[in-house]
Amino acid sequence: MEETFTVLRSRCLREESINYCQSDRGNSMSSIIIKNANVYTMSSDDDNARATGVVVKGNRIVYVGDSKEAEKYIENDTRIIDAEGRMVMPGLIDAHAHPISTPYYNGIPLDIEQNFDEMIECIKEYIEAHPEKESYFGLGYDEDCPGPERYNKETLDAICPDKPLLMLGITMHDAWCNSKALEVAGIDKNFPDPAPGMRYFHRDAEGNPTGRISDSEPFAIVAEAIKCFDLEAAAKSFDELLASYRKLGITSIYDAGVFNDIFEADAFENVKKHEEEGTLTVRITGSSGLTADADKDVCIEHLQELHELYDSDKFRFTTLKILQDGCIEGRNSSNYKPWVDYGEMRAPFLEGEELDSFFLKTAEKGFDLHLHTLGDRAVHTAVESARAVREAGYKDTRITLAHDHMILDEDIPRFAKYDIIANSTPQWWVFKQCNVDALGEEAAKKLLRMKSLMNAGATFTIGSDFPSDEIGYEPFLAVEQACTRQHYGCPDEQMLEPASERLTVEEALRAYTINGAHQLRMEDKVGSIEEGKLADIIILEENPFDMDVYRIHSIKVNTTIFDGEIVYEGGALNE
After folding, report:
1. For the chain, does the N or the C end have fewer beta carbons within 10 angstroms?
2. Phi, psi of 44 (to 5 degrees)
3. Which of the 8 DSSP states describes residue 219?
4. What is the pLDDT of residue 291?
5. Do 145 and 213 reside in the same domain of the chain?
6. How many CB atoms lie within 10 A of CB 41?
């Protein structure tokens, strides 16, 4: 589909589309036996960490052990898969992404690899080719150059003066619009920011909005006003996304918030419809997001409503998401030291007693917390509030800090002390000159210290943050970059220092499986291949433990089993 560019950005969907429907599903109590396998169970029991056979009955794993013993479970309708020595492991868990909202961001197919002039030409050509549209929207421009001289309303006015035009940057923390979009949304020098002092709407010396926008709250204001989302296109895009997840072996996801009332209800009902029709082939744990203009008590009440509406093993709401800051590319992360190239600093969204109070209210209601914390000040304020929750006696609340690009030395051991889960995106673990330009050379060498957090005892999980990256959401690409801190397949390129922060293959795979299950509060159901757990299992074409680390990104999934049903078959076993 021409305009569903956010999904098609992934390499996997450039290859083929995989059709799946309810009619593909067999008898719900049929069995599957995998034999002659190299089963990496992810079990915490060392004696059961490896096996050669797995038996599935209905949607549960009923046996893990010797391949010959597994064959004793054969019945008339049993599907037998001879793995021929291939690696079998739990289905992969993307512990931070946006699968529910991403399909709605369809429109002008921007590409981060475009230079500025190419991007402007792309926007112009799209507008000329679609004169019937009342407004225009696109996602994907490069935010690494934050200078206001590049991203201003006048630049867009020159190619689109009469209709609203809104662009969203690749990190989804920076946006850009023309004068008509500001006019329709009622944004002028007298329009207040959603939160005082946060620099959401960038302004000139006279206070007039320049057309550049930071973060989701002001973006949503403009997007809602210009009505730029295509619900019909979104439905098709979601189907394509599910197909991609099946092919990649992703069977569970934490959705890190929609943050947009415009299509929230439609998006949730679309997921529910797939579940009811038997075509939802990934487990989604959702969250309600706190925005700057929202009443905090109302936000918790909304999460309670969602939890009551959606609470199954395949689609449920358990978590409150808070955007504490932005990103380095947009120069809107919350750091203690000033930017080298930009000057102005930003405070976290919430901090001190206000954040403590909100943490405690959320924990009291029995919900978990997930925070976008990229700068060291944002991380520190969240760690302090986690301390307040633990000291108040809420030991079971799952608290996750996502991204954690910059962490104070003193906060590293406190992740484990206060049982904070560290979530990160290895697609970002590569050297970027913009980080040096923004932070300085020394600070740029202390980014993304996940190995240090793990060594200090913290639980680490992996998320793609799709679509907030040009690379996409391919798990084994992320595994490779977690192990190399270089772009996939590029052993000669500059490494993101220090080398001591590289992960082992085992650490990365545990982050993608049992650790992710813990974050989602599903460790008793998924994340490992153990008797009694739900049968979310994948078979790989190659073993990541037995190959050059710079080839791990090329690993293909041969077979994906979700909820006891084979939902994807490809590769040598099925030729």
Report:
1. C
2. -75, -15
3. H
4. 66
5. yes
6. 23
Mean pLDDT, range 56-81, rounded to an integer? 95
Give per-residue pLDDT as tens, 274-331. 999 999 999 999 998 876 556 788 889 999 999 999 999 999 999 999 989 888 887 8
Contact between residue 73 and residue 31 where contact means Cβ atoms under 8 Å apart: yes
State both tokens at 447.
């980014």
The total domain count for the chain is 2
For 501, residues 6+ apart whose C-beta sits below 8 A from its C-beta are 448, 449, 450, 451, 452, 485
Give the domain-ending residue among 208, 226, 244.
226
pLDDT, tens only, 116-166? 888 888 899 999 999 998 998 887 777 665 454 678 899 999 999 999 999
pLDDT value at 27 more than 60: no
Structure tokens at 387: 């301390």
Where is pLDDT greater, at 84 or 45?
84
3-state secondary structure of 414: helix
263 domain residue, yes or no: no
SS3 494: coil
pTM: 0.86
Query: Is 77 found in the same domain as 150?
Result: no
Tell me which residue range forms the domain holding 563: 23-91+532-574
Structural tokens at position 408: 């104070």
- Contacts for 321 with CB less than 8 Å, ≥ 6 apart: 256, 257, 287, 288, 289, 290, 370, 371, 372
Contact 59, 533 (CB under 8 A): no
Separation of alpha carbons 95 and 298, rounded Å: 26
Tokens describing residue 239: 């189907």
Question: What distance in Å separates the CA atoms of residue 370 and residue 553, rounded to the nearest whole number?
Answer: 28
CATH number assigned to the domain comprising residue 146: 3.10.310.70
d(CA 483, CA 475): 13
- Go through the chain and tell me how many residues it has: 575
